[in-house]
Specification:
212 residues; alpha/beta; Protocatechuate 4,5-dioxygenase, Chain B; 5-stranded mixed β-sheet; 4-stranded antiparallel β-sheet; globular
């Protein structure tokens, strides 16, 4: 599913100079939005540098806290990094995980860092552990809300990364961007067991200069 999303932005190779990756904190509870103090993230494909000046500016503005604890066990951001490395090489990243916060806080961060050379990636699953048909209907409702930029209609029961998704939607709506669905399905479409599935979707936010 992630491959669908990243294929949509492959044409931006050479134009993307930085990537903001935002997602949920699955393991550590905290208030606000956390950035790491680490200078690099490592994957099997090599290291990606962290945009330390951007994080410093966000921290000084009170947008984020620098806290490694939520990042240490977290997978939501790291699963996206190999795709970015294949497409864009060693571009710097701004990795952010959301604790107890709100979409406006995420949107405010994006307002500070989202420029024509910055790609934004929001990482999230959709429904969790419903039967196949229930999940299909649930995810269809969530997809419809995403596509009408209805941040009030998407909560934690709809997407584990609802804060990241809603923050991106809010920021995109403020900019007048468009959204396009790329794919929508569940683990029952690939893994076989349809009694307890996880929902997945992929969308592209379309800006005036291309896919963002």
């Amino acid at each position: 599913m992630a491959g669908e999303a990243f294929a949509a932005v492959a044409a931006l190779r050479g134009r993307v100079r930085r990537v903001v990756v935002v997602g949920p904190a699955h393991y550590v509870g905290f208030r606000g939005i956390a950035a790491p103090s680490a200078e690099r993230f490592a994957t099997p494909l090599g290291e990606m540098s962290v945009d330390a000046p951007a994080i410093s500016a966000l921290a000084q503005a009170g947008r984020v806290t620098v806290d490694d604890a939520p990042h240490a066990p977290e997978h939501a951001l790291e699963v996206e990094l190999p795709f970015l490395q294949v497409l864009f090489g060693a571009v710097p990243i701004v990795p952010l995980v959301c604790g107890r916060s709100d979409p406006e806080a995420v949107a405010d961060i994006l307002a500070d860092v989202w420029d024509e050379e910055t790609l934004v990636v929001a990482s999230s699953d959709l429904s969790h552990y419903e039967d196949y048909e229930s999940a299909r209907q649930h995810d269809a409702r969530t997809a419809a809300a995403i596509e009408r930029f209805d941040v009030a209609a998407i909560g934690p029961q709809d997407a584990c990364g609802h804060l990241a998704v809603n923050g991106l939607l809010l920021a995109a709506r403020r900019r007048g961007y468009r959204i396009t669905r790329l794919d929508l399905r569940s683990s029952g479409d690939t893994a076989g067991d349809k009694r307890r599935v996880v929902g997945y979707g992929a969308w592209a936010i379309l800006a005036a200069w291309g896919d963002g």
